[in-house]
Amino acid sequence: MQAAKHRWLWNGVFMGVVLMLAGGIYWSTQSIDYHWRWERVLPYIVDTSPESIRAPFDGQAELGDDGRTLTLVSDHGDAPLVLDKFSTLLVADGDLLFEGDEVARIDSLRAGPILHGMVMTLQLSLVSLLCSVLLGLGLGLGRLSANPALRKLCILYIEIIRGTPLLVQIFIIYFFVGTVLSLDRFTAGATALTLFSAAYVAEIIRAGIQAVPVGQMEAARSLGMSYVRAMVEVVLPQALRRSLPALAGQFINLIKDSSLVSVISLTDLTKAGREVVSSTFAPFEVWFTVALLYLVMTASLSWLVQRLEQRLAAGH
C-alpha cells in the first residue's frame, strides 16, 4: 500500500514537471513577436491538393454521353487521349484546347516533400546501420586479434575515423572517393555514415567481448570447440546482449548524424525542411516538425531495441 502511494506521488511529480515544461514552452511562444502559421506546413507533409490533368497537345474536348469520359482530339493527327478517371471536369463538350491547358482534376492524397525526405533518411539510416554492424563486427574482432598487423590496422582505422569530424569525412568520400569511383550521392552518403558508425560499433563490440568472462571461452574450448566456433556460438551472443544498449545509442546517433548528408545535396529530412522553409517562410513551424519526425524515428528504434532486450532476457 505504501509503495503504491509513493508510486502515485512520483507519477504526479513527473506529470507536474511535464506540465511546467509545456507551460514554459507555450509562454515562450507567446512572448516572441511571431505569428504561427502551422497551416502552411501541412501541405508539405501530406499534400491533399487536387492533381491537375493538362492537355498534351492542341485540340478539342469531346465529352462522352455518360459524362464520365473525356476524349482529347488532337489538331495535328496525334492519337486521341481518353480520360475516364477524374474528380472535377474543367472543360465542356466541344471546347478548343491548347497544349498545357488544365482540363480536369483528380482528388488525391500524396506524400509531401517533408515525408519524402523522411523516407530518404530512413533508407539511408537503414542501409548504413546494417553495413556498419557487419563492418564494425569485423573491426571489433580484428581489434582483439592475436595478429599484430591486423590488430594495429584496425586500431589505426578506428582512431582516424573517431578522431575526424563526420562532416569532413562526407566531403572526402563524396568529392574525392566519389569522383574516382563515380559514386552517386546516396551511395557516397551511406558509405560515409557506414565508415563513421562502424568505428564506434567496433569499440562497443570489443568492449562487450572483453566483458564476457574468460572462462566462457576456456570452457567452450575444453569441450572440443574451435576458437571460431566458440567465439560465434558462445562469446558473441553474450557480448551482443551486453552491448545492445550501447549499440542502440549509436544507432540513434546514426539517424541524427544522417542529417549531415544534406551538405552534398541529398534530399533527406533536413534538406527537405530547409527547402520548405524557403517556400513557406515559416521557419519555426518547419523545424519543430522536422525535430518531431526525427524524434519519432529515434523513439521507434529505441522501443524496438527495448523489446529485443526483453526478448533476449527472457530467452536467457
TrEMBL record:
<keyword id="KW-0813">Transport</keyword>
<protein>
    <recommendedName>
        <fullName>Putative glutamine transport system permease protein GlnP</fullName>
    </recommendedName>
</protein>
<dbReference type="GO" id="GO:0043190">
    <property type="term" value="C:ATP-binding cassette (ABC) transporter complex"/>
</dbReference>
<comment type="function">
    <text>Part of the binding-protein-dependent transport system for glutamine; probably responsible for the translocation of the substrate across the membrane.</text>
</comment>
<feature type="transmembrane region" description="Helical">
    <location>
        <begin position="154"/>
        <end position="177"/>
    </location>
</feature>
<keyword id="KW-0812">Transmembrane</keyword>
<dbReference type="GO" id="GO:0022857">
    <property type="term" value="F:transmembrane transporter activity"/>
</dbReference>
<feature type="transmembrane region" description="Helical">
    <location>
        <begin position="286"/>
        <end position="305"/>
    </location>
</feature>
<dbReference type="InterPro" id="IPR000515">
    <property type="entry name" value="MetI-like"/>
</dbReference>
<keyword id="KW-1003">Cell membrane</keyword>
<feature type="transmembrane region" description="Helical">
    <location>
        <begin position="122"/>
        <end position="142"/>
    </location>
</feature>
<comment type="similarity">
    <text>Belongs to the binding-protein-dependent transport system permease family. HisMQ subfamily.</text>
</comment>
<feature type="transmembrane region" description="Helical">
    <location>
        <begin position="7"/>
        <end position="27"/>
    </location>
</feature>
<dbReference type="InterPro" id="IPR035906">
    <property type="entry name" value="MetI-like_sf"/>
</dbReference>
<keyword id="KW-1133">Transmembrane helix</keyword>
<keyword id="KW-0029">Amino-acid transport</keyword>
<keyword id="KW-0472">Membrane</keyword>
<dbReference type="InterPro" id="IPR010065">
    <property type="entry name" value="AA_ABC_transptr_permease_3TM"/>
</dbReference>
<dbReference type="Pfam" id="PF00528">
    <property type="entry name" value="BPD_transp_1"/>
</dbReference>
<feature type="domain" description="ABC transmembrane type-1">
    <location>
        <begin position="118"/>
        <end position="305"/>
    </location>
</feature>
<dbReference type="GO" id="GO:0006865">
    <property type="term" value="P:amino acid transport"/>
</dbReference>
<dbReference type="InterPro" id="IPR043429">
    <property type="entry name" value="ArtM/GltK/GlnP/TcyL/YhdX-like"/>
</dbReference>
